[in-house]
Amino acid sequence: MKKINKLAMLVVLGALTLTGCAAQSAPAPAPTPAPAPAATANTADLQKQIDEIKGTIPKFAVPMREVGDRFENIQAAAKGGNWGLAAYMSSYMNKAMAPAKVTKPKEYPMWESFYTTSFKPVNDAIAAKDLAAFDKAYTSVIDNCNGCHASMGYKFIKIVKKDAPANTHVDYTLKSEPSDLK
Ligand code: HEC
Question: How many angstroms is it from 162 CA to the middle of ligand 1?
């Protein structure tokens, strides 16, 4: 009799263990897909947020202030023999316009082509450390700056050649090589 009881207990225990295992390995219920209207609302909300963020990114006016300042600094650096700084100022003058890729996608290519074509003689003169060529290219590119202003409806923004840099917090006379800009 005792033996039978023990056996019965073992059978019960075994069954319990099996049930436990089965319960553990049961697949988790599949997540219910979000109903379509809610998904649409989420997309619209996301788009609204993207548009709001885009609205805070500068268009042309803000980066153009930086373009103007760096443009003046390029000349001071070239004249001072700080060619690395001139190359740096030119590179970041261009990069300053990057937000317009997003905010003014139709107009940005005009800037891109200005920098890669009209502005190229300035960059070439910097790379060659040729001050005479630099002065000629720098003076003549100002017409292109103003040409674009006029064509985009801003003929009243006329850049003039200045002798002094916009910012005086760096040493323009420190001697350096164009290749110092990595
Ligand atoms: C692709 C056309 C384009 C080119 C090239 C261009 N600009 Fe501009 N610039 C503009 C536009 C457009 C504005 C007016 C701002 C706006 O539309 O938001 C402007 C405005 C400016 C301003 C006034 C910014 C302010 O609000 O105070 C300065 C300074 C300036 N540009 C400097 C330059 C210089 C220097 C160059 C040449 C090295 C140059 N720009 C080349 C299109 C151009």
Answer: 16
Residue 27 located in a structural domain: no
Residues with Cβ < 8 Å from 149, sequence gap 6 or more? 155, 157, 158, 159
Number of domains in the chain: 1
Structural domain span for residue 147:
61-159
Distance in angstroms (rounded) separating the CA atoms of residues 130 and 177: 12
> In the beta sheet, which residues pair with residue 176?
82
Residue 30 domain-assigned? no
- Locate the ligand 1 atom nearest the alpha carbon of residue 119 and give its number: 38
22 lies in some domain: no
**Ligand 1 binding pocket mutation candidate from 67, 116, 139, 158 (most atoms within 8 A of CB):** 67
Q: Give the DSSP letter of residue 33.
A: P
The response to whether residue 166 sits with its C-beta less than 6 Å from ligand 1 reads no
Per-residue pLDDT of the chain (182 residues; tens, 9 = 90+): 445 555 444 444 444 444 444 445 556 677 776 667 777 889 999 999 999 999 999 999 999 999 999 999 999 999 999 999 999 999 999 999 999 999 999 999 999 999 999 999 999 999 999 999 999 999 999 999 999 999 999 999 999 999 999 999 999 999 999 999 99
Residue 100 inside a domain? The answer is yes
> Rounded to two decimals, what is the model's pTM?
0.81
Spacing, Cα 111 to ligand 1 middle (Å) = 9
